[in-house]
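Would you mind writing out a protein's amino acid sequence and the numbers that encode its backbone to help me picture the idea?
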Amino acid sequence: MVSLLEAERTVKRYRVPACDTTLGRSGPKPYIAEMDRARAHPPAECIEIDHPWISNDLMPIYLWTFPSETTDEELSACVRAREDWASRARYHFAWVIDLSNVTKAPPTQRKAFAEHLKRLEEFSGRWNAGSALVVPSPWLRGLVTAVFWLSPPRYPHKIFAELLPAKRWAREQLAAKIA
């Protein structure tokens, strides 16, 4: 098992600079090339996901915060943004998925999300170092179990009650994957 300190050091080596908003540019950001060469990894790029629910601040760890309620159309837009990203991303990453705010998730949305996970199954199995899910309540844990029953993940995943331990675990998973 990788210590938290070592995980943070490894992830910091691969930390991507913030978007250059002064020039209005966004998009692929290179890893630190020297670290890639020193570790015998080919240079890779981190790609931002353009959706308000997803934070790119910790790339290649992505923080996905769900709202309390959403429409089918809003969920569909988020799913499309992730699938667009997945069509271009070819590097190891981790997710912290915060479901703390969710108060409602109709069956149509659970099914749509399970289908989304199934479409990304091969991609995620190869590149996802781990998904940490923040699921503080029993009914939400039941919801996650139902979605994973429809589309079982092929990558490491773990459920947490709080955000900070979830972030630590995601860092450790990513550090272990790229070490």
